[in-house]
Amino acid sequence: MGDTPEPPNAPVDGLALEARETRIEVAVAIAIVVAFQAILAWLSLRNGWVLFHVHGWIWWVPIPLELVLLGLLVLDRSGSVDPGSRRRKEGIVLLAFLAFWNAITVALLILELFTGEVRTGGELMIEATVVLATLVLTFGLLFWELDGGGPRRRAIDRDGERDFLFSEMTVDRPGLVPGDWHPRLVDYTYLAFVTAIAWSAADTLPLTRRAKILMAVETGVAALTILLVAARAISIFG
Fold it and tell me: Phi-psi category of 50—alpha, beta or left, where left has phi over 0 and alpha has psi -120 to 50?
């Protein structure tokens, strides 16, 4: 008798899918952030825009970190699913640095608003847009990397512990949500976007304290940026 073919290995298939998603989705997300920052840096240096006494070079600062993060995540071939792996820790540290840099730019933007150094409404809106885009994509990547031990851990343990409860996880009707549904980077980016714009979790609930703290930090930074920039923009354009 011939050998009976073995059933496909679900964890291996899940890891392969995760690897493809990481190479494509993470690369696109980081490329968008880098493009926004590079354009703003060029405009700032070209037009002499100053962010509270700091010249346009400040927008170049995070780009090397983002490129290192891109290489770290996209080119990683270790295959480790350990939540405490070195690669994962390095990625989280880089994302934390980017979040810290973003908080600094928000502080400088607020100081610029209070001191009246903003010269045009266009300058203000472009700076605020880049700050918010960086905020959303940075926290989206943080949520993606932290939830349930990271994307690789989630790929092999679909029913493991989670930091976030997505609405798709609560649907018990196969016709509405595919049976193999799992959160991807776009889902975490949407969560970060809604948290920044609506100042709430919308259709996704935080399940752990660290998830609640991260969402609170993002909401606080976004609220300061949106409210103060909107008030200043109205006074400039008005």
Answer: beta
Supply the angle between the helices 121-146 and 185-198 in degrees, to the nearest 10.
130
Question: Amino acid letter at 85?
Answer: S
Whether 165 maps to a domain, the answer reads yes
Of 105, 44, 43, 99, give the one whose Cα is nearest residue 66.
99
Residue pair 169/75 in contact (Cβ under 8 Å)? The answer is no
Question: Is 209 domain-assigned?
Answer: yes
Per the CB < 8 A criterion, the answer to whether 124 and 229 are in contact is yes
Residue-range definition of the domain harbouring residue 149: 11-237
Is 78 inside a domain boundary?
yes
Dump pLDDT digits (tens) for 32-50. 999 999 999 999 888 888 8
3 within domain boundaries = no
110 near 117, Cβ under 8 Å?
A: no
